[in-house]
Design brief:
The structure holds two protein chains of two kinds. Chain A is α/β, with parallel strands linked by helices. Chain A has eleven helices and 27 strands. In chain A, helix 2 packs parallel to helix 10, helix 2 packs across helix 11 and helix 7 runs parallel beside helix 8. Chain B has a single domain, classed as Cytochrome c-like domain (Cytochrome Bc1 Complex, Chain D, domain 2), CATH 1.10.760.10. In chain B, 54% of the residues lie in helices and 0% in strands. The chains are: A alpha/beta, B mainly alpha.
Chain lengths: 425, 101
């Protein structure tokens, strides 16, 4: 049954490809063809929906995602802090299927053949594409922390930096911790996914401790020189709301761990915690490297900012946390959604034999909770600059909250509802 | 500097004429950058507390944006975002949302 389905995809894909090349020469008219999207997170789900919506159903879209449902990283720190549930951050892929006609396949892509324009699936079979979009997020460089480079260690010392089972498991570790214990979170050197996320998590764990385990402490082991995002607002929250509870240590890169004792090994020092939460350094999701496209520093995908297309491999577009970022651009869900729209517009033009939009704009908004209700934001707008061939932040625009406030706590949840709908329904 | 102004203007004109023509979907693409918060095509999720921009009169949207930019209208974030777009871009965005249902 499944095999038949895949063969059908292959046939349909090939037929659509032939049609696309016909239309490609003609120019104008409605775009058609088959686009395969790998990864159904903030970037992938968005590009899938917008390709269908903007082509008015002319382009076939197959979305391949390993998880049965979308689980959001943004807002997941509230689950770890105990004020939201997994249900609150989980959204079905049904809207993409029924409303937008996206074919959603639950599987993993194990190989990409850029010359033949096919991908191979873990469960077997292949699929052809006219254009491929990789939105694989990040994978962790466990080899940088030798003690963490095995499955057993990874089940005990969690990252919870991909929302899902690890989110639930970290919450359980915090619930089981005795009052008077220490929770330590280790932050890798930038760039990493969601720059303010670790500091938000420190706040929300402290918020939980304050109410339920008031003798407990939070320690931030930051590999960076300083707080990477919203510094003034976070440090003020730590002083005002969690005095004596949160300790911040800069230049504290975790080089190794001792799993049996929950100990982080730093360059000159060791730190033992009751709950040790290590976010390892990351790089583009594995499929990016496997597909043979050009990476910068062996980690992040080099893309053309007019189309999000790989600079080395025509026909493959890459979105979200996996790319080498533009100046000051964070790795965020909001930005991945914006990449998805930029790519959708470019792909439709290219399938139609036209140039991509020469003046794309993307923008970022990121809300962080400092307790269950109060929020701080950072925003930025990035306009394409032909001279530097990248998107540059607009000077004098964007910024941070004047102060933490409850109004933005409501806005943050409004943001979540709208962006999830913008991607998935 | 003054005597050179006309030359500078001519250079700009020349540059504009050789640069690529604007994408016919530019308004759509720009408006999509607002959809994360204001909903796809300006149809914000009901009860989410975000302004639904679909079908709002173009002049009204432009006035709001101008007031955010000038600081006349207090905001938590829109005063920072409105400044990131050119007047021509805001005009296209407002026109696109006004035409949505």
């Amino acid at each position: 049954m499944m095999l038949m389905k895949r063969r059908d995809f292959l046939k349909v894909g090939a037929a659509a490809g032939a049609m696309a090349s016909l239309y490609g020469c003609a120019g104008g008219g409605k775009a058609s063809g088959h686009v395969v999207v790998v990864g159904g997170g903030y970037g992938g789900a968005t590009v899938a929906k917008y390709l269908r919506m903007w082509s008015e159903g002319g382009v076939q879209v197959t979305l391949i995602e390993r998880n049965p449902t979308f689980i959001s990283c943004p807002i997941s720190n509230l689950v770890i802090g105990g004020t939201k549930t997994m249900e609150d951050i989980t959204v079905s892929y049904d809207g993409l299927k029924s409303k937008w006609g996206v074919r959603v396949v639950q599987d993993d892509v194990v190989a990409v053949d850029a010359a033949k324009k096919t991908i191979s699936l873990k469960a077997g079979g292949a699929m052809s594409y006219d254009r491929l979009v990789l939105s694989p997020g990040v994978d962790f460089m466990f080899d940088q922390i030798p003690g963490l480079n095995n499955a057993d260690a990874q089940s005990k010392i969690l990252h919870a930096w991909k929302a899902g089972a690890q989110t639930v498991a970290l919450r359980k570790q915090l619930e089981s911790m005795k009052d008077g214990g220490t929770y330590a979170i280790a932050i890798p050197k930038a760039p990493y996914r969601c720059p303010p996320g670790p500091y938000e998590r420190a706040c929300l764990v402290a918020n939980y401790f304050k109410e339920h385990k008031p003798k407990s402490k939070v320690v931030i082991l930051d590999a960076n020189e300083d707080v990477m995002s919203k510094k003034g607002l976070f440090t003020k929250a730590w002083t005002d709301l969690y005095k004596g509870m949160i300790e911040y240590r800069n230049n504290s890169e975790v080089k190794d761990v001792e799993v049996g004792t929950n100990t982080a090994v730093l360059e000159f020092d060791k730190f033992k915690a009751d709950v040790l939460n290590v976010i390892p350094p990351h790089r583009a999701g594995d499929i990016a490297a496997k597909s043979g496209i050009k990476l910068i520093n062996n980690r992040w995908v080099d893309i053309n900012w007019l189309s999000m297309e790989s600079t080395s491999t025509p026909g493959i577009h890459v979105l979200g946390d996996a790319i080498f970022p533009a100046p000051t651009m964070p790795k965020s869900g909001h930005i991945a959604n914006q990449h998805g729209k930029l790519a959708a517009a470019a792909i439709l033009n290219m399938l139609n034999g036209q140039e991509p939009n020469p003046e794309p704009v993307v923008m970022n908004t990121c809300y962080s909770f400092v307790d269950a209700k109060n929020v701080i934001h950072v925003s930025s707008i990035h306009q394409y600059d032909a001279a530097t061939k990248t998107v540059q932040p607009v000077k004098g625009a964007g910024g941070v909250s004047a102060a933490r406030n409850e109004l933005e706590g409501k806005v943050a949840m409004g943001w979540a509802k709208n962006i999830w709908a913008d991607m998935l329904t | 500097m003054k005597p050179f102004a006309p030359i500078a203007a001519l250079c700009l004109l020349a540059f504009a004429s050789v640069s690529q023509a604007a994408d016919p979907n530019l308004g759509r693409n720009l408006a999509a950058t607002c959809a994360n918060c204001h909903g796809t095509n300006g149809n914000a999720v009901k009860g989410s507390g975000m302004d639904a921009l679909a079908g709002m009169e173009k002049a009204k949207i432009l006035q709001k944006l101008a007031d955010y930019k000038s600081g006349d209208k207090p905001a938590s974030i829109m005063h920072q975002i409105a400044k990131g777009y050119t007047e021509a871009q805001l005009d296209l965005i407002a026109g696109y949302f006004a035409a949505q249902k």
